[in-house]
Specification:
- The chain is α+β, with helices and mostly antiparallel strands.
- Strands 3, 5, 6, 7, 8, 9 and 12 form a 7-stranded mixed β-sheet that branches.
- Strand 8 and strand 9 form a beta hairpin.
Length: 256
């Protein structure tokens, strides 16, 4: 599968212009103000997050959804994923940090599987080599560690023969329509790809996930508000965000 047309929402000026005429709901604006009283999005101590007390309960509840696979989730805090030749943990050249935790869920069934491939270095001679892989369509549940808000978007996850993975990321939420060249949402893109009947199964799964999060007092942000610009909000220089900052940037971001 080649996901042509995927683009970062930070570079979609047209999406920002469409959103600029819509006001952010008052309760959401207040939550952003509580998180960032200086109007600066910056790194915070994720070890103190409310999420850690309920993480395993959420994982258990998600894993209990009938006919659904919990395919992948963000690594435990402190896991770098970097190893040296002796198998000991090695320090990476930089340390990337993120303000959210992701669960990726996929319904069982062949219609949610696809063949994929990636290009990587051959471990023997360093030449560029094509590696086969297997991917799944599903839902990425992204939970903010800063405040009890979450977002759910249709996405994919792939695992390749060289041991690498292509993991879902909320920061890529808009796609280009190959025929018209217009920007479309991830939902519309995947609805066109999967077809209405298969996509309906993802919508049902979304409802089940929302119900679970509600029981844990986590609110799911609607797709229609995620790209609304937040007036006056700016990012610390150590955070990977570009202007104009949107609602999604206030809760779901990375840094070093």
């Amino acid at each position: 599968m080649t996901k042509r047309g995927a683009r970062s929402t930070n570079k979609s000026a047209s999406a920002a212009r469409r959103s600029s005429v819509v006001e952010i709901p008052g309760d959401l604006a207040a939550a952003i103000k509580r998180c960032w009283p200086r109007s600066v999005v910056e790194e915070f101590d994720t070890d103190e997050s409310y999420f850690h007390e309920i993480r395993h309960q959420i994982e258990r509840d998600l894993g209990g959804i009938s006919g659904v696979l919990l395919v992948w989730q963000t690594e435990e805090a402190g896991g770098s994923g970097w190893d040296n030749e002796e198998g000991d943990e090695a320090l990476p050249s930089y340390s990337e940090w993120q303000s959210y935790h992701v669960f990726f869920l996929s319904p069982q069934g062949e219609e949610f599987r696809f063949e994929d491939q990636t290009i990587g270095d051959d471990p023997e001679d360093g030449t560029q080599t094509r590696y086969a892989g297997e991917g799944r369509f599903g839902l990425a549940l992204t939970i903010s560690l800063a405040t009890p808000f979450a977002a759910i978007n249709v996405s994919t996850h792939s695992a390749f023969e060289d041991g690498t993975m292509a993991c879902p990321d909320l920061t890529t939420s808009l796609f280009w329509d190959d025929e018209t060249g217009e920007v479309i949402s991830a939902n519309e893109y995947h609805r066109n790809w999967l077809g209405p009947e298969t996509f309906r199964k993802l919508e049902i799964l979304r409802q089940e996930i929302v119900s679970i999060l509600t029981s844990h007092r986590i609110s799911v942000l609607d797709e229609s508000v995620l790209d609304l610009p937040v007036k006056g909000l700016r990012a610390d220089q150590e955070v990977f965000l570009e202007k104009p900052l949107r609602v999604r940037d206030a809760f779901f971001f990375r840094g070093v």
